[in-house]
Predict the 3D structure of the following.
Amino acid sequence: MTAAAVDNLGSIFADPAAYADQPRWHATAKRIREESPILKVSLPNFPEFWAITRHADVMEIERNPEIFTNAPVPTLTLRANVDAVSKSPVKTLVQMDGDEHRAHRNIVNDWFKPANVKERQERVDELAKLYVDRMATMGGRCDFVNDVALHFPLQVILSILGLPEADHARMLKLTQELFGAEDPDIGRLGEDQSLYEVLLDFVSYFTALANDRRAQPTDDLASVIANARLDGQPLLDMDTLGHYVIIATAGHDTTANAISGGLLALIEHPDQLELLKARPELIDHAADELIRYVSPVRHFTRTCQEPFTLRDVTIQPGDLVYLSYASANRDEEVFPDPFRLDVRRENAASHLAFGFGRHFCLGAHLARMEVRALFRELLPRLEHVELAGEPTWIKAYFVQGPKSIPISYRMR
Ligand code: HEM
């Protein structure tokens, strides 16, 4: 393939429909990794960006957060929306850098440390059992995404935040609308309403929540955030909201996609499925391999602040870089035979699905715990499982995964 042909392949990083065809997306990303691992991508509706596709290069950029900042936009954003996103009054951790980021991350960091997350094990196991039990009553057929995978992580994160079960359906819809914004079946874009309105829904919901927890603090995470102080002062309302929004959104669809994509990967690799069914003690280790393989967060972006040379390319101040976690996690330089799901892969935990460095996923321990809990409950009870129809995929280029996975199964 000529260099010119590779140049034309970069649209896969910004095309929601391209991500919906996973085998094709990965075949294209592989060619880009091999032939032009730092690829300049120019598309009509997006700011120009460098697609970073190799594991080592993604890490190198994340290792230099002063040079590659999350501001002004931390994910690929339509040119027409860049201004609005960068000036949004509600700012979350992923839009912050330097001292501001450190101070805000400290507010929630302790809550997500392994020892604290471990205290939720019992509740997470209970919820996993609830959904697997429910699957067992569904007559041997279900849509694994919409009947199981979407609900379990939402319940976990909302119960950690301390929200009542009656509000879960509303939260489910809001998080999906925020992340599935490019998908006409899910998002509100393309209708007369806009992404902005989804955010407004969040604002009104979480403002009420913060007011309630200030009046009557409990031991939930919503209270920790509502009553947090920065330099001795209460948080601004917009900052409080930012924390709620990132936790409610980042903690949900990501993990749901890891679980649904994980089951699909196991169905497609029957030897690995049988191995885990026979030896459930391998599931703890397998969780990272499933998360590597699925990589539900397809990318984040950074903006370069000073000239930086990576391989044979000098990235200039103002340049946007697109960190392709999905590609980095199939990098054959790090993961031998990367397209194969290998639940015993020794270095599975070296994946970059949770990012790296200062912005490393706050919820990584919780996410792993959820993936492990669900499969630990499900797999030993699953006598047989197969696809009962073609899976469909969400059309999105940020958090992305299966939209439906019809399965038929027999359970104990
Ligand atoms: C399998 C599931 C998950 C995946 C694949 C995932 C992935 C990611 C990635 C790639 C980042 C950006 C890292 C970087 O820039 O280097 C991130 C950040 C973040 N994640 Fe997750 N995540 C998952 C689950 C969760 C959960 C359960 C929570 C719970 C609240 C969570 C909360 C966050 C937060 C708050 C950030 C921002 C951290 C910061 O900017 O300092 N994530 N996640």
In short: Residues 188 and 194 are 6 Å apart (CA to CA). Residues 62, 93-94, 105, 157, 246-247, 250-251, 254-255, 258, 291, 296-297, 300, 325, 353-357, 359-363, 366-367 surround protoporphyrin IX containing FE (CB under 6 Å). The longest helix spans residues 195-215. The chain has a mean pLDDT of 93.
